[in-house]
Prior knowledge:
By secondary structure, this protein is mainly beta. It has strands at residues 5-7, 10-13, 18-23, 33-39, 46-51, 58-60, 68-73, 78-83, 92-99, 115-116, 120-125. It starts with a strand and ends with a strand.
Amino acid sequence: QVQLVESGGGLVQAGGSLRLSCTTPGRTFSSYSMGWFRQAPGKEREFVGAMRWNGVTTYYADSVKGRFTIFRENAKNTVYLQMNSLKPEDTAVYYCAADQPPWAQVMGVISSYDYWGQGTQVTVSS
Length: 126
């Protein structure tokens, strides 16, 4: 079982920035493709972005393109979600997820991921 721990959530004003972190112990982090999802109250969990194990290929939801960036530091077993120009509609619980080999073809669906964190709350005030 792989444990994922998110941190960095909080309350921020619209237009502000936050950086979420997701860490997992173990030696196999570099082999995981990592994704970020979010779930707002009363809504389904939705894809935010993902980075493949190679640390190069990334994907983003249209709603966050140009504002959010995913990057990883394998030496720290950590993936980050840098969120800029935040909007009230970005308010949600944010989850990181790991896809272990053999990797999924499609990164934007929940079923592609094998492990999930517990989530961290992000609240953007207007």
